[in-house]
Write a structure and sequence with these properties.
The chain has one domain: Yope Regulator, Chain: A (2-Layer Sandwich), CATH 3.30.1460. A hairpin with a 5-residue loop joins strand 3 and strand 4 (about 60-65). The chain has a 6-stranded antiparallel sheet with strand order 1-2-3-4-6-5. The chain is α+β, with helices and mostly antiparallel strands and about 170 residues long. It is built from 6 helices and 6 strands.
Length: about 170
């Protein structure tokens, strides 16, 4: 039998509690801004777990990386190191079956979202944490790619901006 949105939210919250990582139910805050999200948790400083209103069959898990202005200046297509990093990041995301989306502010690249999902019919603790671990591993690998391609690249996320955003709303 298919799980309801509320059942999925309750399961996800229990799975998050197991980690002992601070989390916040941001559902009310997100619904004030958009009706695209049914519910959302912010976990730690940069992980978002959410359920989109237009998808009854899955939950989404994403890591939002925000780059400081000094790092963003390096992330331009004219920079051969960035072109190489884009290819390497695309390759690792494809191999690991996670999505990625560059976050832009006007013409500047200010962040990167790494994301995956868990289908409702397989949503259990193991599937949830396997997906979370996979996204986390890819994110760590991407940070390594960026640091190896750019000397002085800090890759430190701006947690205030990161945690207040969802890639969907």
């Amino acid at each position: 039998m298919a799980k309801t949105s509320d059942e999925m939210k309750s399961l996800v919250e229990e799975f998050i509690k197991i980690t002992n990582i601070n989390y916040e139910d941001q559902t009310d805050k997100v619904k004030e801004k958009s009706n695209l999200i049914e519910w959302q948790f912010r976990v730690g400083t940069n992980v978002i777990v959410s359920k989109n209103a237009n998808r009854s069959d899955r939950i989404h898990l994403n890591v939002n990386m925000r780059f400081p202005p000094d790092d963003s200046k390096l992330l331009v297509m004219k920079n051969p190191s960035f072109s190489k990093a884009v290819m390497d990041i695309s390759e690792i995301c494809t191999i690991c079956n996670v999505g990625h989306q560059w976050v832009k502010d006007k013409e500047d690249i200010v962040g990167l979202a790494i994301f995956s999902h868990v289908d409702e019919h397989v949503l259990d603790r193991i599937a949830f944490h396997d997906t979370w671990d996979n996204v986390a591993r890819v994110t760590a690998h991407i940070q390594k790619i960026l640091r190896s391609n750019f000397s002085g690249f800090s890759g430190q996320a701006n947690s205030d901006e990161t945690t207040e955003k969802s890639m969907y709303g």
